[in-house]
Design goal:
Blueprint: H1 3-8, E1 11-14, H2 22-32, H3 41-49, E2 52-58, E3 61-70, E4 75-83, H4 92-102, E5 111-114, H5 120-124
Parallel strand pairs: 4-5
Antiparallel strand pairs: 1-2, 2-3, 3-4
Domain N-acetyltransferase: 11-143
Keywords: Transferase
Organism: Mucilaginibacter pallidiroseus
């Protein structure tokens, strides 16, 4: 499926943060995602303000979201990717990842990174693979506190 197919069906992807339905995206991430349960609203807002965000919309309704944390020169971390359950299965996730990887500010990067528990098949289609030399990678992980 390509851009024309989705555009003809009334879908659009935008990087305009003013279009983001912050309440809907926050609710999905903090209440329904496995990776961001307990996310603080202020932390969420800062993350949106300081990332390159992508929204999927139809009739001004937010159907999906993704965030890229990047220096726009060497590195990008793809995160918070979702499509609402009622809109899955028609290729919107693939279209979103294609759109993100083609974004002009994200060309020529040395490394892309992401973490997923269940979407390996999606990302492998676009060249993502398990981390080479994982023993070189380190992290500080502080999970959100779920109330």
């Amino acid at each position: 499926m390509n851009d024309a197919y989705f555009l003809d069906k009334g879908y659009q992807i935008s990087t305009d943060n003013n279009l983001i339905d912050r309440d809907a995206v926050y609710d999905y991430l903090a209440s329904h995602s496995y990776w961001a349960k307990g996310l603080n609203k202020d932390v969420f807002n800062r993350s949106v303000d300081n990332s390159l965000c992508f929204g999927i919309y139809k009739d001004s309704n937010q159907l999906g979201f993704a965030r890229v944390v990047t220096d726009k020169a060497t590195f990008a971390y793809l995160c918070d990717v979702f499509v609402l359950p009622a809109h899955r299965g028609i290729g919107l996730s693939k279209w979103l990842v294609q759109f993100i990887l083609a974004h002009p500010d994200l060309q020529g990067l040395r490394r892309w990174s992401l973490a997923t528990a269940d979407a390996h098949g999606l990302y492998k289609q676009f060249g993502f693979s398990e981390i080479n030399n994982p023993e070189r990678w380190m992290q500080i992980f502080t999970p959100y506190k779920v109330n």
